[in-house]
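Form P-L/3: holo structure prediction, ligand guanine.
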Amino acid sequence: MTGVRGWRAELVWTLGDPARDEAALRHVPDGLLLVEEGRVVAAGPCGELSQGLPEGTPVEALPGRIITPGFIDAHVHFPQLDMMAAPGGALLDWLERYTFPAERAFADPAHCKDAAGRFVGGLLAHGTTTAMVYGSVHKASVDALFEEALARDMRLIAGKCLMDRGPEGLRDSVGSGADETVALIRAWRGRGRLGYAVTPRFALGSSREQLAAAGRILAGHPDTWMQTHLSENLAEIAATAAAFPEAADYLDVYDRFGLVGPRSMFAHAIHVEDRALGRMGQAGCACAFCPTSNLFLGSGLFDLERTRAHGVKVALGSDVGAGTSYSLLTTAAEAWKVGQLKGTRLDPLTGLYLAGRAGAEALGLADRIGAFEPGLEADFVVLDPSATPALARRTGNAGSLAERLFALMVLGDERVVERTYLAGRLAHRRA
Ligand code: GUN
Ligand code: ZN
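OUTPUT (holo model):
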């Protein structure tokens, strides 16, 4: 008895940015995806692959559907799930008036547990199969999140916010922040597909002592990641410069404490100096481009071309709750619009790459997720290109694959995500 299962549909995935390398696009119009024990066995033309299959191998035919690797959200805040669309001003005002009050509720473990189910369910409903997530300052928020992800065998990286300079009621201390971080690493890292990210919220939220402690924990646990915010908003940048006058620039605040390296993920990175971008590229850092958030808060227009020209890896982040959608399709469409405003138009296929494979590369997980290569984890989504009347007509009259996928991105959202699979197991089905 074989454990192999198959799904027959149009298959699309990327192994890099098709705008830079045409051969990085994989497209099989009548494809078969074969999975065994949670991993991809093969993906290719159905006619060829089905010949070698043992009799009785279950194959599900999904005519008219596209199967692609699950989306990867490089930056999202768990405790902000119920406060999207909060009409604050720019970043610092929005944080004070809406975000911090919402995060205070996560002092209650029962609230964390309830929210974790809805959050992870929300990611899966939008086709996101891997995410890099901020908890709140409370250890219980990360415990609840990891518990939920573990139960679903989801690949998820998360960390508790370090913020000893946070607002009243949302502060840890250098000692408690470090102790809880280490306790979470010991309790969760390596279980199922979970990973830990040391998470100083942003430079303004931590003392020098706390940033130094974060750097020490990171150095002592080389299999963890580091996530923080960088150069998002002009007022925030000015306040950071005033608080850390010894630093050459915003990035240097983190660099001085050992937080800049190949496992560092910087959210936003909109207003970054050439020096800092060069340093990020040289250190192998990644950043999260969060267009819905950057537009919603009026933070600025991220320069994808300039950032990548410095060798910095770029992935997409929803940045919910400043972001306005969990959908990486919608996020990629907003990235396109930001490119239009900057006069650096994206290639239509770059959106698909940014929503998936780029995240795997940015997280150092390209050998695990984000493509249909043998041995990779079988996290995938079944997309319905005719989910709405407008989509049905537009994808029906599109002249090329690139145009069809572009329409799916610009007109699509969670409505096109018919099913989401984690390690070959159904994790969400559209109602
Ligand atoms: N900078 C510090 N905290 C936050 C946050 O919660 N959201 C965003 N967008 N930026 C931040
Ligand atoms: Zn953020």
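COMMENT: The mean pLDDT is 97.
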